[in-house]
């Protein structure tokens, strides 16, 4: 399949005509189901990558869930444990993504295809819907594929680890980290500051099913 991913981020922040820095930070939001497992993990990893690349003054990052069951809750303890073991800092309270958030975000990163569909359906306009991207479309497995399927037709979801054990959270972190160099490079281009991209295990301190809903829908 041809790679239909745009070469620059669709919600590029406005910049002065002389090409100098954007007048406001470029804003990236990661979205999963309940904002307690996958999206806070992606937020913490990407924030660390921004610091490593010297882009943290130009880009802000947050996360949210498509549902509001966990609003106000901390991240799942297993997410906290995995991030802490890997050397990532995180302070988190779950929030719900709503349609009015699109106006304040330049890029909305879905953790699986179910979130991608729901977010695009929620978007107030085609322009806002174009801001929604699948996280693993930035990963190495997406090369030669499309926005939803990688080489050989494999789905580009980050599976929900909520109902499994600790290993699922380790696997989740691995998939998230693998997508970060591509995402960081695109965001760096969008803000006019090409990023010094590290590999999937480049952060100091780290050695590196279709549809999200389970029985009660209260997932991460």
Automatic annotation (TrEMBL):
Lineage, opening ranks: Bacteria, Bacillati, Actinomycetota, Actinomycetes, Kitasatosporales
Pfam families, alphabetized: LMWPc (PF01451)
Keywords of this entry: Hydrolase, Protein phosphatase
One function term, GO molecular function aspect: protein tyrosine phosphatase activity
CDD domains membership: LMWPTP
Low complexity composition bias: residue spans: 8-20
Stretch list, region Disordered: 1-20, 192-220
Species of provenance: Streptomyces armeniacus
Residue intervals of the Phosphotyrosine protein phosphatase I domain: 26-186
Enzyme class: hydrolase
Name used for this protein in its record: protein-tyrosine-phosphatase
Assigned protein family: Belongs to the low molecular weight phosphotyrosine protein phosphatase family.
